[in-house]
Automatic annotation (TrEMBL):
Pathway: Carbohydrate degradation; glycolysis; pyruvate from D-glyceraldehyde 3-phosphate: step 5/5. Keywords: ATP-binding, Glycolysis, Kinase, Magnesium, Metal-binding, Nucleotide-binding, Pyruvate, Transferase. It comes from Fuscibacter oryzae. PANTHER family: PYRUVATE KINASE. Pfam families: PK, PK_C. Residues 5-322 form the Pyruvate kinase barrel domain. Residues 356-467 form the Pyruvate kinase C-terminal domain. The gene is pyk. GO terms for molecular function: ATP binding; kinase activity; magnesium ion binding; potassium ion binding; pyruvate kinase activity. This is Pyruvate kinase.
């Protein structure tokens, strides 16, 4: 099963997509990676969906990536005696540690770490920013505020604190348990919510112990400021526009998105653009024109993947949402302007031998009638480097490791194929030719470019570039054993 596009699609699973028939249909419609949201469902629910994905993978003989999205620390107010209250602009309102039921004047905020970090003038956003409070004065157990944007406040609504770096770990106790469960289950990627600093990522990496790749969700102003440092210690990035658009002015999100995507591309690390991409398709079988344009913009920017959340997890039209995203991607990538934008935004790096090899592979492929770039990769790093080049020809990622193939399912353009371990170069060439022909990328009369590393099966040794014919008889005449 070969995709006719390069950008990947991440589909979130949930109540609307939790059985074999639906998950298989979503994959056949275009989903490349499935997201398991650890905020919803029990471990038993998550394990059941994971098992179904692996069954679909085995039945269709195609590697499928699985992303477990950790909830992160959730900050919420307490409860109200009347269930809710109406806050009026200009009124005074207090948040404190008292467990007494709230009223129109105050409510519990059971997070002393917030009070420890607050300063007068800081903002508190409640219920996704629908209510805004400005701190007038504060102490270790309270914050007296002025209501700057009023509205209805009710039990356990979420609180965002955009102006300060909170002394909170990105991993709550629930997250630690979920992380260990997901790693033992065998997910391929772990998404970290509410990352503020690179140390958050380093902590998660230590707990994962190499069992899953770490993807940092950029959704806090602090994370935007520390982006370069966070990117350096992450395996991938998610532009999580939901909370980002709550904690920052919504008008700042598009330029931030562009900067984050370009930074991740330059670092050869996959980047997902997420949140509200086809939001109306939760209830409607067709998207709005603005949503289609939003998806297209992310693809024009060169994002590795675009993501569906509630559209595929709880919406009425999950298959239609994936199909729409697939069709938008195919339409964009056929547009000559797309290639002009991708080429213009390419960052050429030749700091290492591997950088030079993959850059040369792209240039050779695009200057001649080469049908595909085939890269052998043990860890997936070479696949990332080839993908960073955003070549015009397909990328075939050959690896003996299913774990690498599954992680690479998130990478722009990568068509992942499991192959036997190789210890001789001729065998590698023959395996590359077989993959290109068997998967419909090239015929007997065609040529491919092969990148590999000697010695084989050692991480970070990409040092060979070979142009090979797809006729095994010609290979046998030229390549020694």
């Amino acid at each position: 099963m070969r995709r006719l596009r390069n950008v990947k699609i991440v589909a979130t699973l949930g109540p609307a997509s939790n059985d074999y028939a639906m998950i298989r249909a979503l994959f056949e419609a275009g989903a490349d990676v499935f997201r398991l949201n650890m905020s919803h469902g029990t471990h038993a629910d998550i394990a059941a969906r994971h098992a179904i994905i692996r069954k679909v993978e085995a039945d269709l003989d195609r590697p499928i990536g699985i992303l477990a999205d950790l909830q992160g620390p959730k900050l919420r107010v307490g409860t109200f005696a009347n269930g809710s209250e109406e806050l009026i602009e200009g009124a005074k309102f207090r948040m404190d540690l008292s467990a007494a039921p709230g009223d129109v004047n105050r409510v519990q905020l059971p997070h002393p770490e917030i009070f420890a970090a607050l300063e007068p003038g800081a903002s508190l956003l409640v219920n996704d920013g629908k209510i805004r409070l400005e701190v007038v004065d504060c102490g270790k157990d309270y914050a007296n505020c002025t209501v700057t944007v009023g509205g209805t406040i009710s039990n356990r609504k979420g609180v965002n604190v955009p102006d300060v770096v909170l002394p909170l770990a990105a991993l709550s106790e629930k997250d630690r348990g979920d992380l260990e469960f997901a790693c033992e289950l065998g997910v391929d990627w772990l998404a970290l919510s509410f990352v503020q600093r690179p140390e958050d990522v380093i902590e998660a990496r230590g707990l994962a112990k190499g069992r899953a790749a770490i993807l940092s969700k950029i959704e806090k102003p602090a994370a935007v400021k520390a982006y370069d440092a966070i990117l350096q210690v992450s395996d991938g990035i998610m532009v999580a526009r939901g909370d980002l658009g709550v904690e920052l002015p919504v008008t700042s999100v598009p330029p931030i998105q562009k900067r984050l995507v370009r930074g991740a591309r330059a670092a050869a690390k996959p980047v997902i653009v997420a949140t509200q991409m086809l939001e109306s398709m939760i209830e409607s079988p067709v998207p709005t024109r603005a949503e289609v344009s939003d998806v297209a913009t992310a693809i024009y920017e060169g994002a590795d993947a675009v993501m569906l959340s509630a559209e595929s997890a709880a919406g009425k039209y999950p298959i239609e949402a994936v199909t729409t995203m697939n069709n938008v991607a195919m339409s964009v990538e056929k547009d000559p302007t797309y290639r002009q934008i991708i080429d213009a935004s390419r960052v050429v790096r030749r700091e290492t031998i591997a950088d030079g090899i993959v850059s040369a592979a792209r240039e050779i492929a695009e200057a001649t009638n080469i049908k595909a770039i085939v890269c052998f990769s043990q860890s997936g790093s070479t696949v990332n480097l080839v993908s960073r080049e955003r070549p015009k020809v397909p990328i075939i990622a050959l690896t003996p490791l299913m774990s690498t193939a599954r992680r690479s399912a998130l990478i722009w353009g990568a068509h992942c194929v499991i192959t036997e371990p190789q210890d001789r170069f001729k065998g590698a060439v023959l395996a590359a030719v077989k993959a290109a022909r068997d998967h419909g990328f090239a015929g007997e009369e065609d040529m491919i470019v092969l990148t590999a590393g000697v010695p084989f099966n050692v991480k970070g040794t990409t040092n060979i570039l070979r142009v090979a014919p797809c006729d095994e008889r010609l290979i046998s005449r030229v390549d020694p054993e």
